[in-house]
Amino acid sequence: MDIVALLVILAVLAAVVALVSAPLRGGAAERARGESADAIAELEARKEAKYREIRDAELDMRTGKLSPEDHRALDRQLRAEAVEILRALDDARG
Amino acid sequence: MATVGRALLILALVVALYGIAASIYGAVRGRDEWIASGRRSVYGLAALVAGAFAILEIAFLRSDFTFATVASHSSTTTPAFYKAAAAWSSQEGSLLLWLLLLSLWSSLVLFATRRQLRRVAPYATAVLLGFAAFFAALLVFKETPFGLLAAGAVPAEGVGLNPLLRHPSMMIHPPMLYSGYTLFTIPFAFAVGALIARQVGAADWIRATRRFALGAWLFLGVGILLGARWSYAELGWGGYWAWDPVENASLLPWLTGTAFIHSIMIQEKRGMLKIWNVSLILATGALAILGTFLVRSGILDSIHAFGASTLGVPFVIFIAILVAASIGLVVWRRAELRSENRLDSLLSREAIFLLNNLVLVAMAFVVFWGTFWPLIAEALTGTRRALGPPWFDRYTVPLAIVLVLLSGIGPVIAWRRATASNARRNFLAPALAALAVGAALGALGAASRPLALAMFVCGTFVVASVGQEFWRGIGVRRAMTGENPLLALRSLVARNRRRYGGYLVHVGMALLFVGVAASSAFNDARDVRLAPGQSARAGDYEFTYVRPTSRISTRGGELEKISFGAVVDVRRAGEHVATLRPERGYYPSTDVRGLGPVGRFFEGEATSEVGLKAGMHRDVWTAMTPDIRRMLPTIEQGDRVFAAAAGKLPPALEAQALGVALRGLVDKYLAERPPATFRLITSPLVTWIWIGSIVVFLGGLIALWPGPDVVRRRVTARYAARVAEDLGRA
Prior knowledge:
The structure holds 2 protein chains of 2 kinds.
Chain A: H1 3-21, H2 35-62, H3 68-93
Chain B: H1 2-29, H2 32-61, H3 68-73, H4 80-86, H5 91-112, H6 121-142, H7 168-196, H8 204-234, H9 245-270, H10 274-297, H11 312-332, H12 349-381, H13 389-409, H14 420-443, H15 450-481, H16 485-495, H17 497-521, E1 524-530, E2 535-538, E3 541-555, E4 558-572, E5 575-580, E6 583-586, E7 606-609, E8 611-613, E9 618-626, H18 632-644, H19 651-672, E10 676-684, H20 687-704, H21 708-718, H22 720-729
Antiparallel strand pairs in B: 1-10, 2-3, 3-4, 4-5, 4-6, 6-7, 8-9, 9-10
Helix pairs in contact in B: 1-2, 1-6, 2-4, 2-5, 2-6, 5-6, 5-7, 6-7, 7-8, 7-10, 8-9, 8-20, 9-10, 9-12, 10-11, 12-13, 13-15, 13-17, 14-15, 15-16, 15-17, 16-17, 17-20, 18-19
């Protein structure tokens, strides 16, 4: 093995060790969020999905897939579900 | 350089194994710093593999024949574009490409989710690194791309790229397929992570990886279609799909992946089908590995399998572990996978999606059974028997018709519950359009092929129902904003990318299937032997073999191939339609033992250049095989002359003499005017397969493109309290 190849391999090894071990050395600012943050993120995502459902239902009504009566009933149900999610979100945020 | 490349791969394997251990330790002990270290292992892995891949590419571009893989898959005369792509035509290069793409996509998803999915992501990281460790181990212990030839064995010239692969679409096809396969491992890994972390009930792992699943579906689909295009234009048999095991292997994860990207919408919206979704993606991930295995193991006979069988055992063990672990995980976590809701009505989009899923899975089962039947038959009877296209067509054609019909119903039916009156309003116009087109085509003679006619009717229904959706959507936008129709269309799609991108995919698939149905049911194909001046008919078209052609191609001052071809005049009802120039190209054999310098051109690879006149209405296609028997005495005589002069002429003079001899040979072919065998095909609507593919691609891109949702999420996060109040009031 020539010396240049050896030096390149050692340099790469050092760089990889530095990259991978940075969090263990406390040098990285990365901090995953705690359990409550996970729950909030999940609820946020569920809220967005519910909002999307509400918007989809409105588009379905406007394009004729849902009658205004059906849409009213569905919209009421979806909004009630959204409120539940928002309440849970408030609880999670304390 | 080879030493550095090999060292990078060993380091990649070590980093992958370390990352698996760090991620699992961090997840089990709740140690964030170990989880972060495991995630960084993936970034490190990507950098190491990218370095190894760059070294291999440089070796190919520099024609460094000390690398065994470069000597056996490239040559100095290979064009630079094909030299770069030749790296993945080899077994070891393609495995390295797989690992590179896996590590890049894994880095992307883990970077994007670095502040999310705290409990799921570490296990997903371990799974992704498990895939990486498997492929890195293959590259370190079984198939190294950095093997060197002994000093005395380095050839002055390489073997060159397989001539069949010298086609632009073949250069993009493998990276597309492998991107599809590797992208499918991402939702697979997150599903496993969610199962282990008991988070599978929540849909956040689906939301975090949905775009990757869609990207996988799109890349794999494009890869499959590029392969079909290559088959049609390059292989010389006149078709685009042969139900070949390797083609089927790429179709399997695409079918289950298609089912997955539909059914996850039901889990996102309704909290239903959790067990189904997780099972689908676990099956898709395993099928993606199976696809790679089939290409690389050579276990089934295929025109596309470029691999040897040295990797069979490790792949079988790996797939067995994947399947067993997947089934075990689903059974273990079955309590978490209970549905939160029930199906409200059979007349709902959920029900249609469920039916579409069943059809797709049934198709996947048919394709799987037909593909592996030779192995099953051999195990049961001791005799290997393959199932041909008619067997596949018998089951897949009716299923495809139902699938196309469902893809037309889905867009016009509401979620949860559609009423009969709304269904009537939404289905009436598309159904009438479909029936009118069906009646017209039936009157024109399409009734003789009822399955094809059914596909035309269903395809029309899809186009009409999606057209109606766009029309009504534009109407709504115009009523709300007063925009002109084009602006209304643009803003409608921009605000609902997922919905309208998906609709466009449905239209593309309908066009594609209509093209397949028409070109399969109404094509005319003939194999004929013609002498110059003779004619033959295929359908309404008359093909006349006008005269032979021949030429010698050189590249970089070296003789590349000898081509014998034909000029074919095509007429319909006496009117000139096209002049086609099919050719057969003969590349010299690289194994020169016992072969003369002239004869070796006819003992190596031969490729077909098809003559094709493509049109929106019909393709006229021909390929030819020249009868070179009359040339054999001349070829043998040439070889004898060169054998007698061996060692007596300087190399430059010998090369010049060979050029003169080959020139004489191609001139003799023109003078002799020998007969040739032609395959003549006229096939309707083939072009619509490629147009449909482009529409599918565009629709997929629209659905995949980040829409206002992402922006909206940030805004709503900022004003969450206000939105809560608004919705609370409502």
